[in-house]
Specification:
The structure is a single chain. About 55% of the residues lie in helices and about 15% in strands. By secondary structure, it is an alpha/beta fold. The chain has two domains: about 160 residues, 3-Layer(aba) Sandwich (Rossmann fold); about 100 residues, ProC C-terminal domain-like fold (Orthogonal Bundle). Strands 3-2-1-4-5-6-7-8 form an eight-stranded mixed β-sheet, with helices on both faces. Helix 1 links the parallel strand 1 and strand 2. Helix 7 crosses helix 12 and helix 8 packs across helix 9. It starts with a strand and ends with a helix.
Length: about 270
């Protein structure tokens, strides 16, 4: 199988790097086309299974699965260029916010198998959360191949396309909210005398551990996990009460909704 990447920036490059070892083990080839020749050559040098292409059209023609990692404003031009060589036995995968399955079909035809994904930036450290939405032309076999790619960079779940705005709010954009929380904790620790680098590690590790507790205790709600930590009259309940008093959870929900609404406005 040949998996092609058009665009190898932050997200496309993270997925490529995450999948490269799996591709090599399975004897798959990874093709890459990036406007920057230096990036193409660097990836080709870094991974034995990666081969650079000289154009998007060449990559599309040679690939079984084509991942589109270009900016949303470049999609129309790219789809026009590649449509003549994009046959219906190829799976096209888009990772661009605001680009719908219907928009891609309008260029490639209503019979083209197309998947829309929404990963997040923790893909760069192998901890992505990726939603995968397919159109009616994507077979179960194609879907299994796609899920293999995205599972190599973290977790992947199939969701209907109409839920992608929700996905953006809950996982696509939320690393930014989480960084703000970690930053606030670290700043408070520094104000109380902790060395900055150590403050960041303490805050980030606490968040990572709490997230792991949620994932590994599927039958326990986050609310119950919070209650379990709060001893009556203790330090944690004092902090939690202050967060409730200041509307912390409402602020998070409003931020989530702002991302959702912006996603709806952006969608073509």
């Amino acid at each position: 199988m040949k998996i092609g990447f058009i665009g190898a920036g932050n997200m496309g490059g993270a997925i490529l790097r995450g999948y490269a070892s799996t591709a090599a083990e399975k004897g798959h080839d990874i093709l890459v086309y990036n406007r920057t020749e230096a990036t193409r050559k660097a990836l080709e040098t870094e991974f034995s299974c990666v081969h650079a292409c000289s154009s998007a059209e060449e990559l599309t023609e040679k690939s079984d699965i084509i991942l589109l990692g270009v900016k949303p404003n470049m999609f129309g031009e790219l789809l026009q260029q590649t449509a003549p060589v994009c046959t219906n036995d190829k799976l096209v995968v888009s990772m661009a916010a605001g680009i719908s399955l219907a928009y891609i079909e309008s260029f490639l035809g209503s019979s083209q198998p197309v998947i829309r994904i929404m990963p997040n930036t923790p893909a760069q450290v192998g901890e992505a959360m990726t939603s995968v939405s397919r159109n009616a032309n994507v077979t179960d076999e194609m879907m299994a191949s796609a899920m293999e790619i995205f599972s190599a960079i973290g977790r992947a779940e199939e969701v209907p396309e109409e839920q992608i705005h929700c996905v953006i709010g809950v996982s696509g954009s939320s690393p930014a909210y989480t960084y703000m929380y970690i930053d606030a904790l670290a700043q408070a620790a520094e104000a109380n005398g902790m060395e900055p680098g150590k403050a960041k590690v303490f805050a980030a590790q606490a968040v990572m551990g709490a997230a792991k507790m949620v994932l590994e205790n599927a039958d326990t709600t986050p609310e119950q996990l919070r209650i379990n930590v709060c001893s009556p009259g203790g330090t944690t309940i004092e902090a939690v009460n202050k967060l409730f008093e200041n509307g912390f959870m409402d602020d998070v929900k409003e931020a989530f909704q702002a991302a959702v609404e912006k996603s709806r406005i952006m969608t073509k």
